[in-house]
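Lab notebook, bench 4. The sequencing result for the construct came back, and we need a structural model before the next group meeting so we can plan mutations. Quick request posted to the team channel:

Model the 3D structure of this chain.
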Amino acid sequence: MNTRTTALALTLVAAVSGCSRFFATPVKDILDNPAAYEGKTVKVTGSVVDSANLLVVKFYHLEDETGRIIVVARKAVPQRGAKVTATGTVHQAFALGDQNLTVVVEEP
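Done. Here's the predicted structure in token form:
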């Protein structure tokens, strides 16, 4: 591999890794390894399968083809069946033994 090809390859790798925020992260990837995503901004895309608009918290369950995750809403909660894309920060709400609750908190 010559110098020019190597430089081009490194540039492409940097561009793709820097653009990861623009592509949806599969829900399964987040749920299978929540520690790797803790505190990181992700984009998830899917259908709203359930939602709640409580006095102190608004959230909905977003489901893609790989799994289901809770999204804590900062804005209005989308209706059941809506196709949405949410961008937010991953937080492991609690872990107890082999059970854990991982959520995405939407950016304002």
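The first strand starts at residue 41 and ends at 53.
Will bring this to the meeting.
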